[in-house]
UniProtKB/TrEMBL annotation:
Transmembrane stretches, start-end: 63-84
Coiled-coil annotated spans: none
Organism the protein comes from: Rotaria socialis
Name the record gives this protein: EB domain-containing protein
Record bears the keyword Secreted: no
Pfam families per the UniProt record, alphabetical: EB
KW Lipid metabolism (keyword) present: no
Keywords from the named record: Membrane, Transmembrane, Transmembrane helix
Residues covered by the EB domain: 125-169
Length: 171
């Protein structure tokens, strides 16, 4: 296996000038060939002088931290567009448009209400499909309008009968 091992060490010489020593080693299987260190003299430069500043090592953890912060900012900005941003309004909360009400709910008279054919299940906090006449139920609010849950089955209330055209209880 062939590889390289680099080492960078900042040092100072006798005249107290900053030196930058870089040594490179070649690795072949179990043999290490050391090359001579390369020493560069560095001097402070001012901005705009046309001379490049010496190489400064940037810590990896700092790079990952900046990347993570950038991704968090991007997610915050784009989150609203993919549904992670604003919460949908629940039943009986004020609204101004259909899009801010929860699923299967509409904005009616300035409040979110379940759409036709749906009822609000307070245990789930959702608008779910109403149960038709003759179907099994567990509570009155699951049945269509003018129907009650009697003995676990949705049935029309007194003076109402199942309509053959709509399947709902009508006079």
């Amino acid at each position: 296996m062939r590889g390289f091992l680099a080492e960078e060490v900042p040092t100072r010489d006798e005249s107290n000038t900053n030196l930058y020593r870089r040594s490179i080693r070649t690795i072949d299987d179990n043999f290490i060939d050391e090359t001579q260190p390369i020493t560069q003299r560095t001097t402070p430069t001012t901005a705009g002088s046309g001379i490049r500043c010496p190489y400064i090592r940037f810590p990896r953890w700092c790079f990952w931290l900046w990347l993570l912060l950038l991704l968090a900012l991007l997610a915050t900005v784009l989150g609203v567009g993919i549904g992670l941003g604003t919460r949908k309004r629940s039943i009986y909360e004020s609204c101004s448009s259909q899009s801010i009400c929860m699923n299967n709910a509409v904005c009616t008279g300035g409040y979110c209400l379940c759409s036709t054919g749906y009822f609000y299940d307070s245990t789930l906090g959702l608008c779910i499909t109403e149960v038709g006449i003759g179907r099994s139920c567990s509570a009155d609010n699951q049945c269509f309008t003018n129907a009650l849950c009697t003995n676990g089955i949705c049935r029309c209330i007194t003076n109402y009968y199942p309509s053959p055209t709509t399947g709902r209880c009508a006079l």
